[in-house]
Amino acid sequence: MASESVTLFLLCTVVMMIMKIVISFTKRKNYNFPPGPTPLPIIGNVHLLDIRRQDLTLMELAKKYGPVFTFHFGHLKTVVLVGYEANKEALVAANYDFGHRGPIPISDDFQQNHGN
């Protein structure tokens, strides 16, 4: 009986330490991103999305976090811009920050790294 309670205590301690490390690692990397919902460790904010109407889900989040917020698709951080003014400011006024796009895997497959 005593060994089971010690094992359970050690297991709970290890799980809490892992959660603390994951939370501190996630918060440390968010200093340059706009506010957004707190992500879960592996799936991010995907649990908040209505798969059939993703646009409505993001609009509801914009009411809470503002027209520019961070959304986590798993480990991938995405900055969401909602509304004309937010898009105009990002594309015109801050075009240097928002003008670059990440790699697109299907495009890389077609080009086979030619033309980059």
From TrEMBL:
Transmembrane segments: 6-23
Listed Pfam families: p450
GO molecular function terms noted in the UniProt entry: heme binding; iron ion binding; monooxygenase activity; oxidoreductase activity, acting on paired donors, with incorporation or reduction of molecular oxygen
Signal peptide: none
Record bears the keyword Transmembrane: yes
Keywords of this entry: Iron, Membrane, Transmembrane, Transmembrane helix
Keyword Secreted part of the UniProt annotation: no
Similarity-based family: Belongs to the cytochrome P450 family.
Protein name: Cytochrome P450
